[in-house]
Write a structure and sequence with these properties.
The protein is of the alpha/beta class. The chain folds into three domains: about 200 residues, NAD(P)-binding Rossmann-like Domain (Rossmann fold), CATH 3.40.50.720; about 90 residues, N-(1-d-carboxylethyl)-l-norvaline Dehydrogenase, domain 2; about 140 residues, Rossmann fold, CATH 3.40.50. It contains 16 helices and 14 strands. Helix 5 runs parallel beside helix 6, helix 9 crosses helix 11 and helix 11 runs antiparallel to helix 12.
Length: about 450
């Protein structure tokens, strides 16, 4: 089947080649020349496992077009995978989508009565499809259900596992008010997914609310786990990891996200939480739940600074901090608003006697964000970060950091294990376990 994909960003590009891997002919459009050049060279422009392999293997099924009009004329189904940046009030901007719909609208004038399906996968604020996109296209004298169809089909993926998530979804959410749009999408996806129980069909508004609600519920679980972790740190003889493991054993709750860790971050969770709060306010519902979740999340970095202040007393000098993991998770290079980004920002403004912050992240190539921060030094080797640091923070879960066991520093190093990677480690390392009372940590 011929399908057009508009937008080849960090989701759009993997998604296009995912569709191509299942025998579809994919016609693509994007303005970013660097991305297009990478595709021509069969290289991945992003840090994303398996993406380059897919590009090399399925490039023959993907065509790049310079004119968006050509894609619309040659296909009857278009997937929009475009940015929807967060606005100050927490809602999402539709500007990129509207800019593309304007061009699609003009193209569809010459393609009457074809019921061209416009399937939007970008995260949207509720009512976007019904109250913004459909009326916008109708201004071009196009008729909904006759000249065009609208559907909403967001994917529940995470950077660093995008290809895996697309191939193994828990949910395939299809939102539409059109039986024809539903039929088209099911015909596309039933050739990809054998488990039909993942197909969940809702109307447009229900699906928009559902996308935000799923991610917001996950942020609830993360903040609850962090809240229990805080309680344990400030109680005697308690270990949050043990408590959360028992809580997660209850099938009504489950183990997913019921673990000790840092704040939630990344390109989805924080903004979806704020978007749901914004929607609640707009329809007259108190938005206290997502707001409290954000409040708990925002104070997690202060927990780390409190630990630094406590551990600083173990040294007789100004200390050096080591950050192991700068992006928000492994297998991605997204720095902005990550847990480490927030910690470095707050430490840079603090006056707690830190000489240097040494950073190691094996997935990031561009550290220019810190070129003017004299406090931050970038290390290409894990060994160097250990060598120069007094206190090391494991900021995301990555078994690569277990290599610390094989490094033999000459003096005491304290590892603040935020993710429970280590059961024990040989001296002169000492482990500070996140979610455990200071006195029990015995560092």
């Amino acid at each position: 089947m011929k399908i057009s994909v508009i937008g080849l960003g960090k989701l759009g590009l993997p998604f296009a080649f995912f569709l191509a891997s299942h025998g579809n002919k994919i016609l693509c459009y994007d303005k970013n020349k660097k991305i297009l050049d990478s595709i021509e060279k069969k290289r991945s422009p992003f840090v994303e496992p398996y993406l380059e392999k897919y590009i090399k293997k399925y490039r023959k099924n993907v065509e790049i077009y310079e004119r968006l009009d050509d894609l619309i004329n040659k296909t009857n189904v278009t997937f929009l995978v475009l940015p929807t940046p967060s606005q100050k009030d927490g809602s999402f901007s539709n500007q990129y989508i509207l800019n593309v719909l304007k061009k699609i609208g003009k193209s569809l004038k010459n393609k009457r009565n074809k019921k061209h399906l416009i399937n939007i996968t970008s995260t949207l604020s509720p009512y976007s499809c019904e109250k913004i996109f459909i009326p916008f296209l109708e201004k071009y004298n196009l008729k909904n259900e006759k000249d065009f169809l609208i559907s909403y089909n967001p994917h529940f993926i995470a950077q660093g596992t995008t290809i895996y998530n697309l191939n193994n979804p828990d949910i395939l959410l299809i939102g539409t008010n059109s039986s024809k749009a539903k039929e088209i999408l099911i015909n596309i996806y039933k050739k990809i997914y054998s488990k039909r129980n993942v197909f969940k069909i809702l109307n447009l508004l229900e699906s928009e609310i559902t996308k935000l609600s799923i991610n917001t519920f996950i942020t609830n679980k993360i903040s609850f786990a962090n809240y229990i972790s805080e309680l344990s740190e400030n109680s005697e003889n308690t270990n949050a990891s043990k408590i959360l493991d028992v809580i997660g054993q209850d099938k009504r709750i489950g183990h997913a996200y019921m673990k000790v860790g840092t704040r939630f971050s990344g390109p989805c969770f924080p903004r979806d939480n704020k978007a749901l709060a914004n929607f609640a306010s707009k329809i007259g519902i108190t938005n206290d739940l997502p707001r409290v979740v954000d409040k708990i999340n925002n104070r997690q970095t202060l927990r780390l600074i409190k630990i630094i202040k406590y551990l600083k007393g173990k040294f007789k000098k100004r200390i050096n901090i080591g950050i192991l993991g700068l992006s928000y998770k492994k297998d991605t290079d997204i720095i902005y608003d990550s847990q480490s980004y927030d910690l470095i920002s707050k430490l840079s403004l603090s006056k707690i006697g830190i000489s240097n912050i040494f950073v190691f992240d094996r997935f990031i190539k561009d550290f220019s964000i810190y070129k003017n921060n004299n406090l931050v030094s970038i290390n290409k080797k894990l060994f160097d970060t250990v060598k120069y640091s007094d206190i090391l923070f494991i900021m995301y879960k990555d078994n690569y950091f277990l290599k610390l066991k094989y490094i033999k520093p000459k003096k005491t190093k304290i590892i603040v294990d935020c993710w429970g990677l280590f059961d024990h480690i040989q001296k002169p390392f000492k482990i500070y376990n996140f979610g455990v009372n200071y006195k029990i940590n015995n560092v």
